[in-house]
Amino acid sequence: GTLKNRDQGGIILQLAGNQNHIDLTLDRNYNPLNFGIQVNQMTVQGNREGESLNIGVAQVPLPWLKTVAQKTLETVPKQLLSQPLNGNLSGDFTLYLNPFKIIGHQVAIANPQLGTIRGDRFTGQLRYSQGNVVISDGELTLRKSRYLISSRLTQTPSGINLQANLGIQQGRIQ
Prior knowledge:
mainly beta
């Protein structure tokens, strides 16, 4: 790969293998301006606009994302991160740097699993800020069943507080 200095300050990093690559451009303060990552089927691309990063992801394995969250996001509820988490995440996100928050627009998860809850597909809007996770316009499908979900998960000193609305548009309960 190559590593170049930018005329305006900062660097450009380009690494490529047979099927994988990493492209990264940093400004003079080494903050990301844009990036692209391809590893097998997973792709992550982003660009900076002011104090936020616009990020598009496809086929990101949730176990990998969980590991990243455990190491970088101290305010994510530990009880949530201790649960089995599987699936492949795709969607568009805005990551705000100050104060830190993430908004997921048009999020889709193929073969989602959180704890004992599994499905074929999840779609919805996600928001994470200061230890709070919010799902809006969520839809979980499992075979012919459709479950509509909106929820707020908040970390409190005494544990997790979960508020949720679940609608069963077409479902089978056992």
